[in-house]
Design brief:
This protein has helices spanning 2-7, 43-53; strands spanning 16-17, 19-21, 29-32, 40-42, 64-67. By secondary structure, the protein is an alpha/beta fold. A 3-stranded mixed β-sheet has the order 1-5-3. The protein has a two-stranded parallel ribbon with strand order 2-4.
Length: 68
């Protein structure tokens, strides 16, 4: 899917979250270099992070994110 975004000509980003949970919004998200086996992030935090960064330049198009 990232190739489709890249070829679209649009400004885009597509975060890669760790294991998703149904937990509450914590607003604690961090970009990581690898996925630890126990890492998890709530769907609410992924949504919040994407909305917070939608209008800002992001240095990486597909950052790996996890709960912080």
């Amino acid at each position: 899917m990232e190739r489709v975004f890249a070829d679209s000509g649009l400004d885009w980003f597509c975060p890669r979250p760790t294991r998703l949970t149904r937990g509450p919004l914590s607003r604690r998200v961090k970009i990581v270099e690898s996925f630890p086996m126990t890492a998890a992030i709530s769907r609410a935090d992924v949504t919040w992070w994407m909305l917070e960064h939608a209008a800002q330049p992001i240095p990486e198009r597909a950052p790996m994110i996890t709960g912080g």
